[in-house]
Amino acid sequence: MASTRSTQTTLAFAAVTTLFFAWGFITSLVDPLVAAVKGIFTLTDFQAQASAFAFFFAYFVVSIPASALVSRLKAVPSIIAALITMIAGCLIMLTAANAANYWLVLLGLFVMASGITVLQVAANPLAAALGDPKGSHFRLVLSQTFNSFGTFLGPLLGAHLFLQGVEVKEGTVITPEVRAQALHGIDSAYFWICGLIAALAVFFFLSRRVVTEAAPAPAASSDGLFAAFSSKWALFGGLAIFLYVGAEVSIGTQMALFLNSNAIWGHSDAAFSVPLLGYAMGSDGVQGVSLQEAGKAVAFYWLGAMVGRAVGSGLLTVVKAHKLLALFTAIAAAMCLYVFAVGGVTAGFVALSIGLFNSIMFPVIFTLTLERSTASAESTSGLLCTAIVGGAILPLLVGLVSGSHGYSFALIVPAICYVALCFFAIAAGRAPTVRAEGGVSSVH
């Protein structure tokens, strides 16, 4: 009997981990999608970045209601509701691709991200709870690793499906055939994603009893959801999350366009000589890096974050969190400034490497804020999750700057963000803590 229950719990954990992979994969598809819609619908950089805005704006709208929903319905019904919402988003994306309507693309992304927001609020504590309590941290880290793996694979598949033959450089024209092929790629991607999500929804419905029994009871909050607004450090941490997510998403969503530009890799084959990177990009035999090849290279920006999380976890056992955050943010700022000031082929490799230093920022900012906030952990966490809306706002600004001054120049915006985050880390090192470090659910 105990063996059967253990097997059921293991299967439930595997399903929850699949959710982590799924939302990482879906989120990173936004990067090649931004490049694709720019060409398909003949958009400016600013208009194309509306795709990122639609996706990440959902965090601002849904995070606090999602916390209330999970508290009311418990984890499993909330997950099923989230998956159904994501299916609705996929169906809207299928309609958008077949109707060639950009407004429907934006609506589909918003609906899908709304479901993902609820999913993250419910799934993080559930992953930690499914099994022996002594292994909770290991399970959450393992699930987050699969999330990172999803963010690595997303751009590879997205570029393959969305960007075949698509070019957006000045003077290029997308033929009706290329446009139809790109729309078909979007249709295919979200059709299969819809099927995967539907299968997960069925699994969770059928196994709802065993998963519910293992799920933790919602923690009672000592104050309201909006109490964090009265805490200076909760607000400070919210600003830090806003800037971090905004910087990371801005770089990721512009990366394919940046690498494809003539000032970086547009006329160079240097990237193809790099082991693994060159293989993944898959040279088409034409001099320079096409938009599709550049889109595949974006995967290595997210792979850097995956590797950095593994290395950073070890470093955090011997280096104080605020010091490591200060170091990583300073390096990321310097790398952005290098791209801004120097440019050229080497700037492409430097920009891809920024992901390595983004890696530990979210969980460390989250933890440092929780330790110093005078509001409850639940209220503070709700505010910090809401601040992920930086991923909606700052890409629009970066798109505006790149449209006027070029992609290299636009990295001055994330550079400023990283400098501000460095000051946050220094200030955190000097500020007193009001609670011991507790568990933190990384939702990005």
TrEMBL record:
It comes from the Bacteria. The keyword Glycoprotein does not apply. It is found in: Cell inner membrane. Keywords: Cell membrane, Membrane, Transmembrane, Transmembrane helix. It is a multi-pass membrane protein. SUPFAM superfamilies: MFS general substrate transporter. PANTHER family: L-FUCOSE-PROTON SYMPORTER, PROTEIN TSGA. This is FHS family L-fucose permease-like MFS transporter. It comes from Sphingomonas kyeonggiensis. InterPro entries: MFS (IPR011701), MFS_trans_sf (IPR036259), MFS_TsgA-like (IPR050375). GO terms for molecular function: transmembrane transporter activity. GO terms for cellular component: plasma membrane. The chain crosses the membrane at residues 12-30, 50-71, 78-97, 103-130, 189-206, 226-245, 299-319, 324-343, 349-370, 382-401, 407-428. Its main location: membrane. The keyword GTP-binding does not apply. The lineage of its organism: Bacteria, Pseudomonadati, Pseudomonadota, Alphaproteobacteria, Sphingomonadales.
